[in-house]
Amino acid sequence: MFFKKKEAPNPQFEGLTAAAQKVIQDSGLIKQRARVALVLDMSAGMEAVFQSGTAEKVCQRLLALAVHFDDNGAIDVFVCGEKRECLGELTPDNFAGYIDNEIRAKYKATGDASFGSMVEQVIKKYTTEKGDPAFVMFLTSGAIKDKERVKKLLIDSSTYPIFWQFIGIGEIDFQYMKELDHMTGRIIDNANFFQLNDIDRLSDDQLFHRLLNEFPAWLQELRKMGIIK
Questions:
Q1: Largest CB tally within 10 Å, which of 6, 28, 119, 125?
Q2: 75-80 and 35-41 as β-strands: parallel, antiparallel, unpaired?
Q3: Rg, Å, the chain Cα set
C-alpha cells in the first residue's frame, strides 16, 4: 500500500478506507495519483444537509478516497456562499468535528449560490499549482444563479486535468446538473452528476462506485491527448 497510514478519526474509518481501496482497484486506479477536493455549496438549501449529518458522511467517504489518491491523504476544502474561499486541508487527523467547528460555526448557509467565481478559483488552483490531476467533488442543493457562466467555464476548461463530480442533495429535478453531465462543446467530458437523497440507503461500495463512475474514462482520454502521462 503506497500511502502513509494515519490514525483513524473514528472506528468506522478503517472499514471505509478498505471499501474505497477495493473500488479503486476494481476501477483500475490502484496506482493512480490525484489531488482530491470538496466544494461545499453554502446556499440556503444546504442547511438541512448539514443538520442531517449528510455532509459529514460524504466528507468522510471522500476522505477515504483521498488517503489512497492524494500524496498526503488530504482533501482541499472550499466553501461557496457569501464567501468563496479555500479552507485548507481536511485530513484524518482533523476530521473529528470539522463540519460543525470549521464550516457551520463560521459560515451561514443562506440564499442562492453563484458558482462561477468558485469554479474559476478551483481551476486557477489546479492549473497554476503543479501536481497530479484533480478530482473535485461539488456537493450542492442545486440553487445556482449563474448557470450559463458555469457551463462556459466547464467547456472552456475541458482539456485541463480537472474532473468535476457534482452531487445533488434534495428532491428537486436537478435538470441543470444533468445538463452539465451531458452538455456538448467540450473536448473531453470532464463532469459527472448523480443525485444522493439518502446516503444511508447506499452501501459504501455503491457510493464509491458512483463517485468514480466516469473518472477512469476521463483519465484515459487525457492520456490519449497527451495532457497527462
A1: 119
A2: parallel
A3: 16
Indicate the pTM of the whole model: 0.91
Are the C-beta atoms of residues 190 and 157 closer than 8 Å to each other?
yes
Average confidence (pLDDT) per 10 residues, the chain, 229 residues: 44 86 94 94 90 89 90 91 92 90 92 90 96 95 89 96 93 89 95 90 92 96 94
List the grid coordinates of 182.
451531458
Contact in structure between 103 and 50 (CB atoms under 8 Å)? yes
CB distance 119 to 154 below 8 Å: yes
CA atoms within 13 A on the CB side of 32: 26
Q: How many CB atoms lie under 10 A from the CB of residue 14?
A: 12
| Cell numbers found for residue 191 | 463532469
Residues 6+ apart with CB under 8 A from 153: 116, 119, 120, 123
Closest CA to 168 of 64, 58, 69: 58
